[in-house]
Amino acid sequence: MSETSRSQAHTHRDAGAAPRGPGGPGTPHPTAGRAGGHQTGGHSGRPRTGGSLAVGELVEAALPLIAGWLPGQRWYAGKGQAITGLHPVTATPLITGDPAMVHLLLRVEHGDQADLYQLLLGLRTEPPSGLLPEASLGALTHGPYDGAALYDAVHDPELTGRLLAHLAGADRFGPLSFRRTPGPGLPADLLGRAGTAEQSNTSVIYGTSFILKLFRRISPGTNPDLELSLALSRAGSTRIPRVAAWFESRLAGAEPATLGLLQRFLPDAEDGWELALDQVARLKGDPSPGNFAVEAHRLGRATAEVHRVLARALPVARLDREQTDRLAGAMAERLDAAAAAVPALRRYRSALHAAFRQLTADHLTGLTVQRIHGDLHLGQAMRTPHGWVLLDFEGEPAKSVAERRLPQPALKDVAAMLRSFDYAAAHLLAGAEPDPELAHLAAAWAARNRTAYCAGYTAAGGTDPAGAPELLRALEIDKAVYEVVYEARHRPGWLPIPLTAIHRLATTA
Ligand SMILES: Nc1ncnc2c1ncn2[C@@H]1O[C@H](COP(=O)(O)OP(=O)(O)O)[C@@H](O)[C@H]1O
Ligand SMILES: O=P(O)(O)O[C@H]1O[C@H](CO)[C@@H](O[C@H]2O[C@H](CO)[C@@H](O)[C@H](O)[C@H]2O)[C@H](O)[C@H]1O
After folding, report:
1. Torsion angle, CA of 314/318/320/321, rounded to 10 degrees?
2. Of the candidates 150, 85, 89, which has an alpha carbon nearest to the alpha carbon of residue 113?
C-alpha cells in the first residue's frame, strides 16, 4: 500500500457481505473520518504512530481478534451461535498516533441474523497499566499497528476522556456527530472510568459529574433512552438524571443511530435492587427489619410522576377494538415463542393463554396508551437524597426499537416493578434449603411492598392498578414470560425465580 493511500485514512472493504440486517441494503462501504494532524510516520515493525491512520488495514488486522473476543462480552446478544460474518460498516479514527482510538460500527452475522455493534478500539505500543483481562483483545500481528496491544478503549481513562471532549465541543468526525443540550458547558478535561455495574451496554463515569452510556447493539433511529430522557429533561423532570449530551452516527439509507448518552452522574444514589436485597436479607432473624414499604410507596409516586410527564410530552392514544385484540394477541404470541424456546414453560401454556383470554375487548377498549419506561425494575431505580430517580428508558433489550417505541398501557411499567419486588423476595430463597417460615416472610415482604408501590402510584395520580385486575395479571404474566426467556439465556441459575412466579400466576386467578 502506498503512503498516499494510507494517509487518506481509508475505508474497509465490505465486499460480499450479505445484504441483511442493520447496515444491510444501502449500507455504505465503511467510511472513515480523519482525526489528528500529525504526519504519517514510517513503518519499521512498530506501530506507525503519528499521522493519519490506515484505518481499513488496521480494522482488517483487528477482525480476527474481535471475532474471538466478542462472544465473551456480557452485552453481546448472539451468544451460543457461531459468528458467520464480521463486516465493518463505519470505522472512524478518533485519535491517531500512540495511543490511537478507532470508533467502529460492526455488522455481526450469526445464524440467519445480523446485528450492528458499537466498538471503541484502543491501540497502544504497550497496553495501559492495569488493563483487565476481559478488556484485552490481544496483540495485532499485521497491519499498520503490527505488534500493538488492541483493547476495548472504554477501559482507557485517557481515551474515554477524549469522548467527553468531543461531546463538549459538539464535534463531528466523518459519520459521527456529537451533540449537546443547551445549558452550562461541559468540562473537556476529565478522565473516564469504566462503570462496574452489570449492564446491557457499557457506561463510562467522569469524576462525580457525568456518566456516558455507550450503546452496544445499535439500531437505526433515535434510541428510546435518549428520546424519553430528553423529553423528561426538557420538561424539567427531576425524576431522571438530566441529559447533557449524546452522539450519533449517520447510516446510509437509514435514520441516524444513537450511539451514546451523557447524563448527570448521581454520586449519592443507591441502587433500588441492592437496597431491596439488603432489606430482604434482614428477614433472616433481624429483630429490627427495615420498613421498605415507605420507599416502595415513594417509588410508586415517582413512577406515576414520570408517566404523567411522558403523557404530556409525547403522543397518547386510546385503544380501539382492533388494537385491543392486537395487544392480547401479541402477549399470546410471545408466550408461544417463549414456550418453544424454554421447555419448562410448556406445561403452563394453556392456563396462561386462558388468563390472556380473560382480558376481553371490554377490559381494554378505550384504554389510554402512552410512552412508558418499558423495562422498569428495582435496578433501574436509584434512591437519591432528593427521592427516587429512574434510569434506562431503553425498553426491553430483546424487542425491536419499533416495538419499544409503541405507546403502551402505563400499567405495564407497574406490573414490571411488581415483578421486581417478587424477584427480590425470591432471591433470598434461591439456592437455599427449603424453609417454609422464611418463604412465608419473603412472600409477605413482596406483598407488602407491592401494595405500597401501587398505593403510591395511585396517590400521585396514576391509574389505580386494583381497578384493572385482569389487565394487571396479564401484564405480569407477559413480563414473567419475558423473564423466563431472559434468564434461560443470560442467567440460567436464576430461571427458577420467574418460573415460580409463572406457576403461581397460572394456578391462581
Ligand atoms: N446517572 C447515573 N448516576 C449514577 N449511576 C448511574 C447513572 N446511570 C446509570 N448508573 C448506574 O449504571 C447502571 C447501568 O445503567 P443502565 O442505564 O441501566 O445501563 P444498561 O442499559 O446498560 O443496563 C445502573 O444500574 C446504575 O447503577
Ligand atoms: O437492566 P437491563 O435493561 O439490562 O434489563 C435486563 O436485565 C435485568 C436484570 O439485570 C432484568 O431484570 C430481571 O432481574 C432483576 C434482578 O436482577 C429484577 O429486579 C427484574 O424484575 C427482572 O425482570 C430485565 O428483565 C432485563 O430486561
Report:
1. 120
2. 85
For atom 7 of ligand 1, which residue has the closest CA?
265
- Answer yes or no: are the C-beta atoms of 9 and 33 closer than 8 Å: yes
377 CA → ligand 2 middle, Å:
6
Q: Which 8-state DSSP code applies to residue 12?
A: P
CA 279–ligand 2 middle distance (angstroms): 19
Residue 397: its pLDDT value, please? 80
pLDDT of residue 36: 30
Intervals of CATH 3.90.1200.10 along the chain: 270-507
* CB 206 near ligand 1, within 6 Å: no
Pocket of ligand 2 (CB under 6 A): 199-200, 273, 375, 377-379, 392, 396-397, 419-420, 423, 483, 486
Q: Exposed, middle or buried by CB within 10 Å (0-12, 13-18, 19+), for 38?
A: exposed
Residue 45: per-residue pLDDT: 38
Torsion 33-36-40-46 (CA) sign? negative
- Atom 18 of ligand 2: nearest residue by CA position: 420
Asked if the interface predicted TM-score (ipTM) of this complex is over 0.95, the answer is yes
**What pLDDT is attached to residue 71?**
94
**What is the C-alpha to C-alpha distance for residues 467 and 448, in angstroms, rounded to an integer?**
18
pLDDT of residue 53: 66
> Which portions of the chain are predicted below pLDDT 50?
1-51
Query: Cα separation of 189 and 206, whole Å?
Result: 10
Closest CA to 57 of 156, 109, 155, 123: 123
Domain 270-507 classification at class level: alpha beta
Dist. CA 209–CA 192, nearest whole Å = 11
CA of 52 to the centre of ligand 1 (A): 35
Residue nearest to atom 4 of ligand 1 (CA): 266
DSSP code of 28? P
Residue 487 Cα, ligand 2 centroid: separation in angstroms? 9
pLDDT in tens, 425-471: 999 888 888 899 999 999 999 999 999 999 999 999 999 999 999 99
**Residue closest to 315 by CA, chosen among 377, 384, 370:** 370
